[in-house]
Design brief:
The complex is a heterodimer of chains A (528) and B (73).
Chain A (H helix, E strand, L loop, with lengths): L8 H42 L2 H21 L4 H10 L1 H7 L1 H27 L6 H30 L4 E4 L4 E4 L2 H5 L2 H32 L3 H36 L1 H7 L6 E2 L3 E4 L20 E3 L2 H7 L5 E2 L2 H6 L1 E2 L5 E2 L2 H23 L8 H10 L18 H29 L17 H27 L4 E3 L3 E2 H4 L5 H32 L6
Chain B lengths: L5 H14 L3 H24 L3 H5 L4 H11 L4
The complex binds protoporphyrin IX containing FE.
Chain lengths: 528, 73
């Protein structure tokens, strides 16, 4: 018999660390793939429209960099699936076919779109018509974006499980509505924000590479034209990311209020709540939210959090303590306290145990209506049945708080940056740029642009830290905490694979960066 | 086969494409090494399917026991 006490605590933490490591590593490749897809698509569209071979060379150059990143990223996501099967077997079984369907569609679409259109994009120059080639380039990007869609549908389901029913006989969730799962509002917001933020990463990368050429005073036309495209894509994407990020935050406020409270270090909620710009939240320890009124040294924008979360400056936003103790919503309904949820979770687990025992003894399903009703009524709080201490449902506030500020802060910085680059590239306002030329600025300007490349990655990874740390301890929101989802493994085996991955990933990353830098230094191959 | 037939042109695209690769060769080598490490080493030796190993054919009962027993009494 397995008991929670017998599950090696290290197994949970190492499995989480391993999953985080793999996901962070995987996410180094995805945004650049999605972002460069747009950049190279625009370049080739310019070639299609102008027939100027300069644009063809430019498109080929960015496609080469896209290819390197694509090749390095291939299959890095598959490791996550390995981990599901080995380290998170209870979870994998429990989610049932919810994951199977989106991931299968993703696999098939990715394989067919990528193997066909990537091949035409790289091998098809001068072999297929310009129009077909252009379509293949855009479809390569579209294929990657559609893949991202399905993965995000799976992720969104864990954060907001919809369109499914739990089957106590199979112990799996079964999809009752594909459209509810695939078009869940949470998935749509997630997709829009993730994709637009990925375009930012591609744009920053593009502008950074161009600035390096400008600094070295080489390939100036390619650098200047690409810089303009990169900066315009970047500005549009940054504004879209801010708008979609706002929508994501509203979704979070609605379905994961604890995540929002952690992001904002909001211990006690209320109406007319301000949005925290900065506050002192010690990055290394969980604050004493039960006793502190609020985080110290707080500077806030009045009413902004209420407005952001509810579209009403006087709207009610619950804090961590409200969520723990229960509260009455503005519409008069009551959000149960954690203790009440724990009771309901336990009821569901006991009913499940009774149901399964009775079934083993041969009792027909028809006679087990009461147990089934209890399971169904309380299933949405199933996971609370495993909570022993209220604090277990509070995510680690410092990571959420700071990661959110890093993401948004860098996002705002990038809006400004892209606007300045566009102004410089188009010499607007003319007076300011009379004595300056973007192709011959002091070097530190270019270094700033290059330094923004890692910052854009940091923003992107921080986004995932918010999304994933903010939903702790749940692997499936309110239904399955990490310590129940994890397999009954010995931590030593997880530790070994953690370090194996660390070595493998570091090597692969070094190889990729090395090849990328070599190709950037080599520059584009110009047609004769 | 006629050289202007679709099938010929389709295969020729891949054939000549792979044959004339330069940087692509390095990238494909890396992809193949990576896939080998992942599927022939990591998957086989380090990432067995836990449930298939511990409860082949009986996964639902195994998971039920896990989920019920891990709850506080
Ligand atoms: C500028 C304002 C921004 C706002 C208001 C914002 C808001 C948010 C919120 C609320 C989440 C959590 C969503 C969830 O848990 O479901 C999130 C996630 C994320 N953000 Fe941002 N964000 C902004 C900028 C950026 C920037 C600049 C990047 C990257 C360059 C970025 C990349 C991400 C990523 C990759 C995620 C995880 C995927 C997801 O959950 O959507 N965000 N963002």
């Amino acid at each position: 018999m397995t008991n929670l006490l017998l599950i090696d605590a290290g197994t949970i933490e190492w499995s989480r660390a391993q999953f985080a490591l793999t996901a962070i590593y995987h996410w180094l490749f995805v945004p650049l793939t999605l972002g460069l897809a747009v950049i190279m698509g625009i370049m080739e569209t310019c070639y299609y429209r102008t027939k100027d071979t300069f644009w063809k060379d430019a498109a080929k150059f960015w496609q080469k960099l896209f290819g390197i990143n694509f090749a390095m990223g291939i299959a890095t996501g598959i490791i996550l699936e390995f981990e599901f099967g080995t380290n998170w077997s209870n979870y994998s079984w429990f989610v049932g076919d919810i994951f199977g369907a989106p991931l299968a569609v993703e696999g098939i679409v990715a394989f067919f779109m990528e193997s066909t259109f990537v091949a035409v994009m790289y091998f098809g120059w001068n072999k297929v018509s310009r129009g077909f080639h252009l379509a293949s380039t855009w479809l390569t990007g579209l294929g990657a974006t559609i893949s991202a869609w399905w993965i995000l549908v799976a992720n969104a389901w864990m954060q907001y499980p919809v369109g499914c029913e739990f089957n106590p006989d199979t112990m799996r969730h079964e999809m009752v509505s594909f459209s509810e799962v695939a078009l869940s509002p949470f998935a749509i917001s997630k997709f829009c924000h993730t994709v637009t933020s990925a375009w930012i990463v591609g744009a920053v990368f593009c502008v950074g590479v161009c600035c390096w050429y400008l600094m070295k005073k080489r390939d100036t036309r390619l650098a200047l034209e690409s810089l303009k495209i990169g900066a315009i894509v970047g500005l549009v994407a940054s504004l879209l990311a801010a708008a979609t990020g706002h929508k994501s935050a509203q979704d979070v406020a609605e379905v994961q209020p604890m995540k929002l409270a952690a992001m904002e270090a909001l211990y006690n909620g209320g109406t007319d709540v301000g949005l925290t710009a900065v506050a002192w939240v010690n990055p290394f320890s969980q604050p004493d939210y039960a006793n502190d009124e609020s985080a110290p040294l707080k500077i806030e924008m009045p009413y902004a959090l209420s407005f952001m979360a509810t579209n009403d400056i006087h709207g009610y936003v619950p804090g961590i303590n409200d969520l723990l103790n229960g509260y009455t919503k503005p519409d008069g309904t009551r959000e149960p306290s954690i203790d009440e949820k724990i009771e309901r979770g336990k009821k569901a687990i006991v009913a499940l145990a009774d149901y399964r025992k009775a079934r083993q003894e041969g009792v027909p399903v028809d006679s087990l209506g009461a147990q089934l009703a209890t399971i169904n009524e309380n299933m949405k709080y199933f996971g609370y049945g495993y909570i022993k201490d209220k604090d277990q449902v509070v995510p680690y506030i410092p990571i959420n708080f700071w990661a959110f500020r890093i993401m948004v802060g860098i996002g705002c910085l990038l809006i400004l940056f892209f606007a300045i680059v566009i102004a410089g590239a188009y010499k607007w306002p003319a007076k300011l740029w009379q004595k300056r030329d973007i192709t011959s600025l002091p070097h530190w300007h270019y270094w700033v642009a290059i330094a923004l490349i890692p910052l854009a990655y940091i923003a992107s990874e921080s986004g995932w830290l918010v999304a994933e740390f903010g939903r702790q301890p749940w692997t499936i929101q309110d239904m399955l905490p990490t310590w129940v989802a994890v397999s009954d493994l010995h931590s030593s085996s997880v530790i070994i694979t953690f370090f194996l991955f660390l070595i493998l990933f570091t090597t692969m990353l070094a190889v990729e960066i090395n090849i990328l830098i070599k190709q950037i230094k080599k520059g584009p191959d110009y047609s004769a | 086969m006629r050289k202007d037939s679709f099938i010929y042109r389709f295969f020729n695209l891949y054939y000549e494409g792979f044959r004339d690769m330069k940087l692509g060769r390095t990238l494909w080598t890396i992809i193949l090494i990576k896939l080998f490490i992942m599927f022939a080493i990591l998957k086989v030796f380090f990432f067995p399917n836990f449930l298939k190993e511990h409860a082949p054919g009986n996964e639902s009962s195994y998971v039920a026991t896990e989920l019920i027993d891990r709850a506080e009494p």
